Amino acid sequence: MNDSQVGFIGLGLIGGSVAKAIKAKYPNTKITAYDPNTKSIHFARQEGVVDTIAASIDDAFSCCDFIFLCAPVSYNITYLTSLKAVIKPECILTDVGSVKTSIHEKVIELELEENFIGGHPMAGSEKTGYENSVSHLIENAYYVLTPSSKISEDKIMHYIDYVETLGSIPIVLDYKEHDYVTAAISHLPHIIASSLVNFVEKKDSSEKIMKNMAAGGFKDITRIASSSPTMWQQICLTNKENISLLLNDYIEELSHFKDLIDSACENDLYHIFDDAREYRNSIANSSLGPIKKIYELYCDIIDEAGGIATIATILASNNISIKNIGIIHNREFVEGALRIEFYDEDSSKRAFALLVKYSYHIYER
Ligand SMILES: NC(=O)C1=CN([C@@H]2O[C@H](COP(=O)(O)OP(=O)(O)OC[C@H]3O[C@@H](n4cnc5c(N)ncnc54)[C@H](O)[C@@H]3O)[C@@H](O)[C@H]2O)C=CC1
Ligand SMILES: O=C(O)C(=O)Cc1ccc(O)cc1
User: Which residue ranges form the domains of the chain, and what is each CATH number?
Assistant: First the structure.
C-alpha cells in the first residue's frame, strides 16, 4: 500500500485530512488532486501532501489505485461520468460524502458498481477548508463503508484494510440504512442547531440581549450551526425523504412537549428530562470527534475512602495510563460504578485482566 497512487477531487477539511493521514502512514504514496480552489491546492503541494495538481478530471487520474471524491455531495456525483472514462479496472472509487443513496444511484446508472465503495468518515467539525485539515482527524473514528453490490470481495477487503491502517474503525452498512441513520443522528441535529440560532436572532431585542447572554448550553448545542452552508444545503437536498420523515416525527415530539408544558404535567415533564439524561449519559463521550471508539470499563466499587486511589495505583504500577476516571450513577449502576477510560484497546484489555485478578467485578459495554 505504500507505493499506491491516490487521487482526490476536492481537498478541503475532509479530503485534506484523509490525504494527510495517507501521507503520514504511507509516505511513498503519490497523490494527484483536483480542487477549484487553486490557492489551497498549491499550498497542499508546497506542504508535500499533493504531488501532482490536476487541472481537470483527465488522464492524471488513470494510474490511481484509489480515488476519493471529497467535494460537497452533489458535486461529487457530477464527476462520475468523466472518471468512468479514465480509471483503470482495479481502481477503487470512493467518496466521503454525508449522503450515500444519491451517489450509489448514479454509480448504478453509469455501471460503475465494480469499482465503487461509498465511504463516510464519522469525523469532522464545523470548520471548513484545507487549512483546517489534520492527519489525525479520522483517527479512532468510525468510517462507514457502503460497498456496491457488484464490487469484488477482494476490493472490499483491501479497502477495509486501508481504512483500518489509517487509524479509523471501518463499519460496513447498506447505503439506504446509512442515510436513515445519519438523517437522525447528524442531519436533524444540524437543522435544529441552525433553526434555533436563526430563531433566537429573530426573537432578540435591538440591544441584542439574548446574543450577549447566550451561555454554555446554547453554545454547546449550536456549535455545528457554524458549518459550511453549501455542504448542508446539499445534504438536505440529497437526503430529502429521510430528513423530511424524521423532521415530521420530531415536530410531533416538540408539539407533545409543548402540550405537557401548557397543561403543567409535572410527572411527564420530569420523565422527559430524566429519560434524556439517562440515554445521553449512556452515550460515550470523546473530545476527538463526533463518533469515536471509546475504550472503557465499569467497575463495581465499595463506597469507602481510598477506593479509587487503590485502583489507580494498581493500573499505574502496571504502566496503564488512565484517560478519564469517575463514579457514575444511573439505572444500570444504581449503587454507582467506577467508569475508567483508556487511550487504547490494549490498555483496556490489560486493565480488565488485572482488575479481575484483584477480584474486582468488571463490566464492558
Ligand atoms: N465537514 C465535516 O465534518 C464532514 C464532511 N463530510 C463530507 O465531506 C465532503 C467535503 O466536506 P468538507 O471537507 O467538510 O468541506 P470543505 O468545504 O472543507 O471542502 C470542500 C472542498 O471541495 C472543493 N470543491 C468545491 N466545489 C467543488 C467542485 N465542484 N469540484 C471539486 N471540488 C470542489 C472546495 O474548494 C473545498 O476544497 C462533503 O461531501 C461532506 O458531506 C463527511 C464527514 C464530515
Ligand atoms: O462537528 C460535528 O460534530 C459533526 O457532526 C461533523 C460532521 C459533519 C458531517 C458529517 O457527515 C459527519 C460529521
Answer: 5-173 (3.40.50.720), 178-262 (1.10.3660.10), 295-363 (3.30.2130.10)
